[in-house]
Design brief:
Length: about 230
């Protein structure tokens, strides 16, 4: 357990293509609860739901209060600023970005990355989306909080709608490590929840499985990945 690490679960109520998606149900569980339960298996000291300060996100805050989840409200449009606000409030040394619309994200992969971050000489970030070999919706992004602060001002206006997009553009200023699957490539699979078609596909894929505990590779019927982490040159 890395007590000075925190998982930030980014969630909001509205979506142009699938409004209220985090409250949709898969396998008898609301998506936000599936994501939080998976995040609770991360080797971090706390899991915090990061939502916005808009009234329309009051239901998220109420749901978190009802479930006993830690919740933080920040900037509605600027996700870089919201992240900085949450860093000020919780002061972790390492953050894990968790997307609230990715119910099948896999904590075992993230924990491999977190172990690599541990220590004074760890990288600024470990990511599995530098070179993609995992399904879309199975992101791993572990970031050193001090490095995130250092480079936040360099985020362009369009990049501030995203949490980490600017870090990839600034890769030559960071120590980055890439996670890839040494045994295969499942990047053609889409396991995120962004459209009604995604909701139907995830419902079909997860039918008959415990959506909180079952790893995505069992649902897909593919071998478990073999994650390796390599420094970017």
């Amino acid at each position: 357990m890395t007590a000075d690490a925190a998982a930030f679960v980014y969630a909001r109520s509205d979506s142009r293509r699938l409004p209220g998606k985090i409250f949709l149900e898969l396998g008898g569980h609301k998506v936000i609860d599936i994501v939080h339960a998976r995040a609770a298996r991360l080797d971090v000291g706390r899991v915090v739901v990061l939502t916005t300060d808009r009234n329309l996100d009051d239901p998220i805050v109420a749901h978190c209060a009802d479930r006993g989840y830690a919740c933080f409200r920040g900037d509605a449009q600027d996700l870089v600023r919201r992240t900085l606000q949450a860093l000020d409030a919780h002061a972790p040394r390492t953050i894990v970005r968790v997307n609230g619309d990715c119910p099948l994200f896999e904590p075992r992969l993230v924990n491999v990355a977190l172990a690599h971050m541990d220590g004074e000489t760890g990288p600024d970030m470990v990511s599995n989306i530098i070179t993609r070999s995992f399904p879309y919706g199975i992101a791993v992004e572990c970031i050193d909080a001090a490095a995130y602060r250092r480079h936040a001002d360099a985020a362009a206006s369009a990049e501030r709608e995203h949490v980490t997009l600017h870090l990839y553009r600034l890769a030559d200023r960071l120590s980055l490590c890439s996670m890839r699957d040494a045994d295969g490539d499942t990047s053609d699979w889409r396991l995120t929840l962004d459209t009604p078609q995604d909701a139907l596909a995830l419902a079909r894929l997860s039918a008959g499985y415990d959506v909180v505990a079952t790893p995505y590779w069992e649902m897909l019927g593919v071998p478990a990945p073999a994650p390796v982490i390599e420094p970017m040159q």
